[in-house]
Amino acid sequence: MKASEFDKKFDEGEDLTAWLDLEKAHRPGLGQKRVNVDFPVWMVRSLDREARRLGVTRQALIKLWLADKLQHR
């Protein structure tokens, strides 16, 4: 199918999922990349206490805090 045909079908609200390879679909910029960060022991203990208090993992807490900080700068 030509791009112009695809665009026309999209603009008309047709279901295009049959034309898409959803196995290869991804959202740009949302891929994962592993990083290593060294924290002092006192900081890890504080993170663990706060994570337990909130009922989340240490990793989830760090991600939440970093995302919040980056969105509000």
3D structure, described in words:
- It is built from three helices and no strands.
- By secondary structure, the chain is mainly α.
- It has a domain at 37-73.
- It is elongated.
- The N and C termini lie far apart (44 Å).
- The mean pLDDT is 93.
Mean pLDDT over all positions: 93
Task: Give the CA-based shape.
Answer: elongated
What is the number of strand segments? 0
Radius of gyration: 21 Å
Task: Please mark out the parts with pLDDT under 50 across 5 or more consecutive residues, or reply none.
Answer: none
Put simply, the count of helices is 3
Task: Give a short account of the largest sheet.
Answer: none
State the separation between the terminal residues, measured CA to CA.
44 Å
- The SSE string, one letter per element, is HHH
Could you say which structural class the secondary elements and strand pairing correspond to? Answer: mainly alpha
- Per DSSP, what share of the residues sits in E-state strands of 2 or more residues? under 5%
Fraction of helical residues: 40-55%
